[in-house]
Amino acid sequence: MEITKKVRDGDVRTVSRLIRNIEDRIPGAKDTIKHIFPHTGKAHVIGFTGSPGAGKSTLIDCLVAELRKRDKTVGVLLVDPTSPFTGGAILGDRIRMQRHALDPGVFVRSLATRGALGGLSKAVGDAIHVLDAMGKDFVIVETVGTGQQEVEIINHAHTVVVVLIPGMGDEIQAIKAGILEIADIFVINKADRDGAGKLYRELMYMLSMADEFPGGWKPPIIRAENMFAADSFGKSLHELTDTINAHYQNLVDKHLLGDRILRKAMLELNEALHNAILDPVLTELVETGDMRRMADMLLKKETDPYTLADEVAGKYLRE
Amino acid sequence: MEITKKVRDGDVRTVSRLIRNIEDRIPGAKDTIKHIFPHTGKAHVIGFTGSPGAGKSTLIDCLVAELRKRDKTVGVLLVDPTSPFTGGAILGDRIRMQRHALDPGVFVRSLATRGALGGLSKAVGDAIHVLDAMGKDFVIVETVGTGQQEVEIINHAHTVVVVLIPGMGDEIQAIKAGILEIADIFVINKADRDGAGKLYRELMYMLSMADEFPGGWKPPIIRAENMFAADSFGKSLHELTDTINAHYQNLVDKHLLGDRILRKAMLELNEALHNAILDPVLTELVETGDMRRMADMLLKKETDPYTLADEVAGKYLRE
Predict the structure, then answer these.
(1) Domain shared by A293 and A244, yes or no
(2) Whole-angstrom Cα distance, residue B181 to residue B166?
(3) Nearest-by-Cβ selection for B84 from A37, A118, A178
(4) Number of domains within chain B
(5) CATH number at residue A87
(6) What is the widest separation between alpha-carbon atoms in chain A?
(7) Distance between B136 CA and the closest CA of chain A, angstroms
(8) B181 to chain A: nearest residue by CA?
(9) Are residues A280 and A135 part of one domain?
């Protein structure tokens, strides 16, 4: 297939258009992914998450520069799940990533939910496949927060980096409860701020409560001072890059990489099943006007959502 | 049905057990909701969202006290979507809500995702129905952030209050892009902090960019100083309570309440369809071992997720 070859040859216009089509859910994009799929599985996928304002974009920008120094090619996907209605919000600080714009070894793209809710994680999974097939050694995915959708997005990664900053208030405790389960590496950014020591000790304490770590990998905590913001590449950046590589090597050594790949495969299969089974039913309900009629019945309290859904299932599912 | 009567009589033990069953997805809970459904639709549902640390819980605590002064009964659902794996994290600051524990006019419950991903919005919708049927005049739902899932949760509300604080960094811009679409009322909390004026002006500017507001309701911005934290009920609290009531009255006057109720009904119908159509297929795929076999095929790159999903759809969906 012509387009598959162009993707593998790293043709930027083809890749850009394909990712746009994935985002817009153009049906043809699905067929292209089918053809690209056998050529994937080589890239090391790194996920970054953390609160808004934690400095993820700057950190990724520096990591990209460091990986380029080490002669690695990099794809970056900046995912914005915070704006489900407006779609495609461009973040000011992402402009910083522009310094890599002229480097053919770096490909950066933003992804946002367009139109209807849902499907962003699937779009991210597909976009990772594209950058992987394009031949990038590393694919970096950035998302914000640790809600359900963000966790789904981050589960596409082999290595998950959670970026924290001091002084985010007590509710960070709740976030950390979720974070602990997904983090392979912690970065305390802006570690020269008040409260950095307290945050470090809290993380250490939470890690000490865990019974065991898969593959014996206890998530390291990297303290990054303002060197990132100052655009200087210091000790922390080397440490982060080396730790990311070490995590991947540990997955390989302990035969755990297959588990990560399986996790991603199961996630994608689930999403594809959602699309193939639920979406056609919903589409038909809308097109026939049944959805509107059912909503009217609900408004009049003539029936309830569960009874209606059971009736629809009886009509569309085989025995 | 005995349990329906007990819920309507406000029996706390029955309601607590029912909400627990909804959270745990006990199949019997669904049947109870079917019976309760005709007795719902009387409560004014208020949604609160905002960043972690924005002071939502304290604000809600004070609002509950104010509503009680006005002889209204209140149900509160504290939703924590940030911790999809651990489930049921109890936030320290929620303990403050305890002062209402002995007041029979107030019912407070936390909801978290248990076990598998997904379904939290549905659980929230059902729990709202329960508190509504229980006879509470107001049902307050608190969630964190404005990701896709949080927006789904907040869409169960008639009135959405977005709580912001100054000094959250530049990325707040991106959050606000999503927030503007869902907010009926803004609260700038901790408005005595540096940056409160800037945040106020930014919000005013964003609101000035909008072409029109449904029902002519331009979201008011309420500035709350530390009076909430100080547990004194000042001007801001009265203003917030009055504004919440005014928003509801505006929905009624402009014949827009039906649209909000329809939005909630469509959301619930979609979620019920997900459960009735997709879940049985996924369950069977897991139980028969087909899911595992398909994952193995994906790992070996023998096929791709889309092709597999189409095959499954062909097997389970009627022509």
Answers:
(1) no
(2) 20
(3) A178
(4) 1
(5) 3.40.50.300
(6) 66
(7) 19
(8) A85
(9) no
**Is the Cβ of A166 closer than 8 Å to some Cβ of chain B?**
no
Do A242 and A312 share a domain, yes or no?
Answer: no
Within a domain: B145 = yes
Q: How far is CA B125 from CA B49, B50, B265, in A?
A: 16, 19, 9
Contacts of B308 in chain A (CB under 8 A): 269, 272
The dihedral through the CA atoms of B201, B203, B206, B212 has a sign that is: negative
Same domain, A300 and A161: no
Residue A5 resides in a domain: no
Q: Is-contact A149 A121, C-beta < 8 A?
A: yes
Q: Are residues A247 and A278 in the same domain?
A: no
Nearest to B172 by CA among A166, A82, A195, A228: A82
| pLDDT tens digits for range A41-91 | 999 999 998 876 778 888 899 999 999 999 999 999 988 655 433 333 344
What is the per-residue pLDDT for A174?
43
Q: Yes or no: say if A158 and A257 are a contact pair by the CB < 8 Å rule.
A: yes
ipTM: 0.77
What is this structure's pTM?
0.72
Q: Outline where DSSP puts E strands in chain B.
A: 44-50, 74-80, 106-112, 138-142, 159-164, 185-188, 221-223
Residue A25 lies in a domain: no
A273–B312: do the CB atoms touch at under 8 Å? Answer: yes
**For residue A311, what are the domain limits?**
272-316
A47 and A191 in a single domain? The answer is: yes
Q: Do B178 and A86 touch (CB under 8 A)?
A: yes
Taking residue A31's Cβ as centre, other Cβ atoms within 10 Å add up to 14
Both structure tokens of B155: 């869409």
Q: State the helix-helix crossing angle for B27-36 and B120-133, rounded to 10 degrees.
A: 40
Closest partner residue to B147 (CB to CB) among A81, A265, A295 is A81
Q: 């080490």: which residue's tokens?
A: A70
Regarding whether A252 and A124 lie in a shared domain, the answer is yes
Contact indicator for A229, A163 with CB cutoff of 8 Å: no
With respect to residue A30, please indicate whether it lies within any of the assigned structural domains: no
